[in-house]
Amino acid sequence: MGNVYQEPSADPRRVADVVLASAVRAQADAIYLEPMLTLGDLADDTYMVTFERGSQVLGTTNLTANLGAAVIARLAYLAQLDLAGTSASSGIVPVRSGDREADVVITVRPGSSLRADVMVMARGRGRVQAPPLGTGSVEKGDTVGNYKILERLGEGGMGTVFSVEHVALGRKYALKVLRSKVVDRDPTSAQRFLREARAAARIRHPNIVDVFDFGYVPDGRPYFVMELLEGESLADRVERGALPPGDVVGIARQLALGLAAAHDCGVIHADVTPSNALIVGAPTDEVLHCKLVDFGLAELAGESFQSEESDFVLGTPAYISPEQLRGLAPTDRSDQYGLGAVLFELLAGHPPYQDTDLRALCMKHIQAPIPPVTSPHGPLPGKLADVITTCLQKSPGQRFPGMRAMIAALDEIERVADRRGWRKWLSS
Description:
Blueprint: H1 12-25, E1 30-38, E2 41-53, E3 56-64, H2 65-78, E4 89-97, E5 100-109, E6 115-122, E7 143-144, E8 147-155, E9 159-166, E10 172-178, H3 180-185, H4 189-201, E11 211-216, E12 222-227, E13 231-233, H5 234-239, H6 245-264, E14 277-280, E15 289-292, H7 298-302, H8 310-313, H9 322-325, H10 332-348, H11 358-367, H12 384-391, H13 403-420, H14 422-427
Antiparallel strand pairs: 1-2, 1-6, 2-3, 4-5, 5-6, 7-8, 8-9, 9-10, 10-12, 11-12, 13-14, 14-15
Helix pairs in contact: 1-2, 6-10, 6-13, 10-12
């Protein structure tokens, strides 16, 4: 697996076939085709193909940018995927190499550059079945992979989170395992959970939680391991009251930067809520530092928002975009809508739309006028309300053309605030 396919005359059909066959022969379980990262920026001239088993890299090879994009196009053709789509799409292709057979799940991710990832499932072990009744629990004191379960931290519509300790390193992390109820409802969710978690783990950004490891609990459900963050969610923070506008501007920019990094990698969050944004660091820190969690996993959660569990029903729908409610696939502009709803709540102390009836709440997202953006702390800095109402437009086409445009608008708000001494006025 060396640098062998860089010549311009290489046939992308042949390269795609060799990549898939090599993965099956090497018993890799994942392949990633993505632009190389150079000093944090996407390179324009080289694609890297990475072969992995578990969390270990088996090998890499480089392709020219044109060849890399052509190979992804070939993979999309094999999986019958639409390259013009605005969200990630997946298809399954059977592959045979020698005496080995596998089903490969090809996922193409649009973004600033085309990307693809391939999950290889050897015949006989690929599909995770729903765990037998009564055998799907993970308890304190259990050992899962290299991690000892310390305590349960919480549970959402999709997964249960535990604090764990690496048995060899002694370091503490958070482990999230897919809930049995989700697997019962959709047997394919286990594969998608792990596939999206692995894709999200490749986004390296200070405003996104780091994911380190993956695996399966004994009953076959997948888990992933992420950094254990000390702090509180924005949901907990806003329960104590609306935040000062100056803090909200800083939080908005950090969340937008994290979302922009994800969108560049073709990963859509689709469930931007106060509960999925954590404030980390000491309470006395002058600048609040935020991190987004559950990146790339929200489409699974979105399928569950009609669950009978009230905690989930009353949470996510307060921030879901109109197009998602209409059954359309989430896009980067859906994340804008969720972020706008979060920022509205941070300023006002409540979400833009509220109703005890779920159907009525959903219809407000689709039909109700955008309410005025106000704050109990007094006047807002210039243009901040405009940024939020732009995010909350009913039509995706009326929102910002991309997260970078929203960041530019937030930067301008901060520049004006500095020039006019607004920060000093706000803290007085």
